[in-house]
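Private note to self, pasted from the team thread so I don't lose it. Backbone tokens:
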């Protein structure tokens, strides 16, 4: 396997990782911003005020997106296994 093939495989892997993690990370960043803004405006400095909604949102998004995440990972795995002869030979 040449260096170019390794770079292509790693690039595809990083693209898949970014596509799968992006929705949850963007939503978590957005909710964190909104909760921080609400904390600043109300002068409420309670830690559970930010932690609990963020955890609930991230957990809910993971459960809702799980079929899509799984489908993307399965498609990527099938693609890697179907091209396995090219990488080994």
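Design output:
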């Amino acid at each position: 396997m040449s260096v170019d093939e390794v770079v292509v495989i790693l690039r595809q892997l990083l693209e898949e990782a970014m596509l799968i993690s992006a929705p949850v990370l963007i939503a978590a960043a957005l909710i964190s911003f909104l909760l921080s803004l609400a904390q600043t405006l109300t002068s409420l400095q309670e830690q559970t005020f930010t932690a609990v909604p963020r955890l609930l949102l991230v957990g809910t998004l993971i459960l809702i997106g799980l079929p899509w995440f799984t489908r993307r990972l399965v498609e990527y795995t099938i693609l890697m296994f179907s091209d396995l002869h090219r990488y080994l030979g």
